[in-house]
Specification:
The complex is a heterodimer of chains A (230) and B (430).
Chain A (H helix, E strand, L loop, with lengths): L3 E13 L4 E13 L3 E6 L5 H8 L7 E6 L2 E2 L5 H11 E4 L11 H12 L3 H14 L15 H13 L5 E5 L7 H16 L3 E5 L11 E6 L2 E6 L4
Parallel strand pairs in A: 3-8, 3-9, 6-7, 7-8
Antiparallel strand pairs in A: 1-2, 1-4, 4-5, 9-10
Helix pairs in contact in A: 3-4, 3-5, 4-5, 5-6
Chain B lengths: L6 H25 L2 H41 L2 E4 L10 H10 L3 E16 L12 E10 L1 H8 L5 E4 L9 E5 L25 E6 L2 E11 L4 H4 L1 E5 H7 L9 E6 L7 H10 L7 E4 L6 H39 L1 H9 L4 H37 L2 E3 L2 E3 L5 H27 L3 H6 L2
Parallel strand pairs in B: 3-8, 5-7
Antiparallel strand pairs in B: 1-9, 1-10, 2-3, 2-6, 2-9, 4-7, 5-8, 6-7, 11-12
Helix pairs in contact in B: 1-10, 2-8, 2-10, 2-11, 8-11, 10-11
Classes of the chains: A alpha/beta (230), B alpha+beta (430).
Chain lengths: 230, 430
């Protein structure tokens, strides 16, 4: 039996201002087995990105429990959460989130250097990763010199360079044209084929077919969970 | 939970944090706007100069006077007449002892008595008018020894200095002449219209002798510019003093000796000469009010420097704060992908140190290669000294590291403030 790499229990997230409390996630329960390609869908404001940020340790939930790769994240210190993001998780953001003054190679190198790889090792891995996403000729280009699709490929290469247990992608094709979007989804498909666990937030129905499972959110609640072969 | 790290792993991790911080800082500096970088470095350089030069010039005004006092008057050591005595007892023995001491290059003895110089007596027609006279210390010297000690002939501004073997010549200090003493107003009497070649009458006690003015000597040291110099042979023709004792014995040390004025003083005291004269090093002979001014100026310089440091730290704070605020999103992304907060903070601290150290290094260059030689060549013309720039290496190094430390803190605080913000809020720009 495949073990659950993500386990979410009774998760709540509420944004509070002085006068108003806005519940965004309500009592989310979710278990994701290792190697699954999970799609999170829903209308704008349904809470899909918020759910991904909570699971991806980019934000703190208001209540509930998140267990990643067997580790309960509830009482983790900031330092441990940072280490966990560095060692176990990878992120692909909608707007690519590359550091503008660094080249494509250097953007991929930073987390590797942080992990303790040497300069040469980091450079070699980064160059290899750029080759794998079809950008071997763009190693020394800065983000401003790359197209949106190319930037997103660099972002995927950065997210995958340190072999994360879980890859999170927040609307990775939203800012791309159709052809670029398809090539990015193809990259995810290829990664999934190697056994990579992927959690992808998307609102584009055409990419649903690539996911093993789709979770639909509405008003912060899971309203439908299309598990494989259901 | 994640497995606990060993001490070695923690060290390696800390080194890695530093290394990543350095990598990020380097990339940010290289990627930053060149004119902004130059401007920040320029501000840092000016701050450093403000720290070193302002106090250095203020102290230098006094130090210039002290150096002049030593070079032109006291030498490294001076033995002077004790209060209530008319001369230094056992002058010859002291001279001989000093000449035998290792490291002593010149021993010069001055002999003086209060006297009166009268000028323009040949052209004085109306005897109801006051005589053109001035009271001063008539100083008898060995021309050769005085020249070796103070290089006094170099300060002759009109005419020439005395020759060793001539008689009847006098060199008058410029401050005794009206045309050179306008700075002093009517504080004391001066002679009018005395030029080299003129005759003057010198009176000590009951004896009067006529001298030809050979030259006018002018220095910032009043003990020189307010005296009149004649050869010691002429002096003894005017003065009756048993045992031919002197009034000042000055000592110049060899430039290569390891001995100091203090060593020579201690030797003289040990030899039992303390009751015969007042033995002082050059530093001790400086009037106390000058030391007080020196302390006050130094304090003033430090206050101005401290204000400069505060301004520099605010500048760095603003620069780093604006940099960090505009890069808040990227700071959030870096945190999001697992870059430690410390590395990000350190990257900003490295940037601050970079600006301060480059500015400081340029400042050190400007101080020692340009300003110090410039002030030495063209000292500030101050009434009591030729103001130089005093920038001792120890003090300069201290100020350099003070600037680094202050900018380090000023860089850390805003970086910490931004880095501490919620990661997701930073990424999403909320």
């Amino acid at each position: 039996m495949t073990k659950n790499i993500i386990s979410v229990k009774n998760l709540f997230k509420t944004y509070s201002t002085k006068d108003i409390e806005t519940p965004v996630l309500r009592d989310i329960n979710l278990e994701v087995p290792e190697g699954q390609f999970l799609g999170i869908m829903g209308k704008s404001g349904a809470g899909k990105s918020t759910l991904m940020y909570q699971i991806g340790l980019l934000d703190h939930p208001s209540g509930g429990e998140i267990i990643l790769n067997g580790m309960n994240t509830e009482n983790m210190s900031t330092e441990v959460r940072t280490q966990m993001r560095l060692n176990e998780l990878g992120y692909v953001f909608q707007d690519y989130a590359l550091i503008p003054e660094l080249t494509a190679t250097e953007n991929i190198m930073i987390p590797l250097l942080m992990k303790g790889f040497s300069m040469n090792e980091s450079k070699k891995i980064s160059t290899d990763m750029l080759g794998r996403v079809g950008l071997a000729h763009r190693t020394d280009n800065k983000p401003s010199q790359l197209s949106g699709g190319e930037q997103q490929r660099v972002s995927i290469a950065r997210a995958m360079a340190h072999n994360p247990k879980i890859l999170f992608a927040d609307e990775p094709t939203a800012n791309l044209d159709s052809a670029s979007g398809h090539s990015i989804i193809q990259l995810f498909k290829d990664l999934h084929a190697t056994g990579q666990t992927i959690v992808m937030v998307t609102h584009e129905e055409e990419y649903v077919k690539f996911c093993d499972r789709i979770v639909y959110l509405e008003d912060g609640k899971i309203v439908r969970d299309n598990k494989p072969h259901q | 939970m994640l497995p606990k790290k060993s001490l070695k792993q923690k060290w390696l991790n800390n080194l890695n944090v530093l290394w990543v911080g350095w990598f990020l800082a380097k990339k940010q500096i290289i990627g930053s706007n060149i004119s902004t970088t130059i401007l920040i470095i320029f501000i840092m350089m000016l701050t450093f100069l403000n720290l070193v030069v302002v106090s250095g010039v203020l102290v230098g005004l006094i130090e210039g006077g002290n150096i002049a006092n030593k070079n032109q008057y006291t030498g490294d050591l001076i033995v002077s007449t004790l209060a209530g005595k008319s001369s230094i007892a056992r002058t010859n023995e002291i001279q001989n002892t000093l000449k035998q001491m290792s490291g002593v290059a010149v021993v010069n003895t001055r002999y003086f008595e209060s006297g009166r110089i009268e000028a323009n007596y040949k052209t004085r027609r109306d005897f109801s008018e006051l005589q053109d006279t001035v009271g001063t210390q008539i100083t008898g010297i060995s021309v050769v020894d005085e020249e070796a000690l103070s290089g006094i002939s170099g300060f002759v501004i009109e005419g020439n200095f005395l020759n060793p073997n001539e008689s009847g010549g006098i060199v008058i200090g410029a401050n005794l002449l009206k045309r050179f003493s306008t700075d002093f107003g009517d504080a004391f009497a001066t002679l009018e219209g005395v030029y080299p070649g003129d005759e003057v009458k010198v009176t000590i006690g009951e004896k009067t002798k006529t001298f030809i003015v050979k030259g006018i000597v002018d220095t910032k040291v009043n003990e020189v510019s307010l005296r009149a110099f004649i050869t010691k042979e002429d002096f003894w023709r005017l003065v009756d003093r048993p045992e031919l004792n002197g009034n000042e014995i000055t000592v110049k040390l060899s430039p290569t000796t390891f001995f100091t004025g203090n060593d020579i003083k201690n030797n003289l005291v040990k030899a039992g000469f303390a009751p015969d004269g007042k033995i002082q090093t050059a530093l001790e002979a400086i009037p106390d009010f000058l030391n007080q001014i020196r302390i006050a100026f130094s304090l003033l310089g430090n206050v101005i420097g401290a204000i400069g440091i505060v301004v520099a730290s605010i500048t760095i704070f603003i620069v780093i704060f604006i940099n960090a605020v505009t890069r808040r999103k990227y700071i959030g992304i870096m945190k999001g992908i697992g870059i430690s907060e410390k590395s990000i903070e350190i990257s900003y601290m490295f940037q601050s140190v970079f600006y301060a150290s480059i500015g400081g290094i340029i400042g050190v260059f400007v101080v020692y290669v340009i300003l110090v030689p410039l002030f030495a060549a063209y000292p500030l013309n101050f009434p009591f000294s030729d103001g130089i720039l005093v920038a001792p290496v120890k003090g300069t190094v201290f100020r350099f590291f003070l600037l680094l430390f202050v900018t380090l803190i000023a860089g850390y605080i805003p970086a910490r403030k931004i880095v501490k913000q919620n990661t997701l809020d930073s990424i999403l720009g909320r």
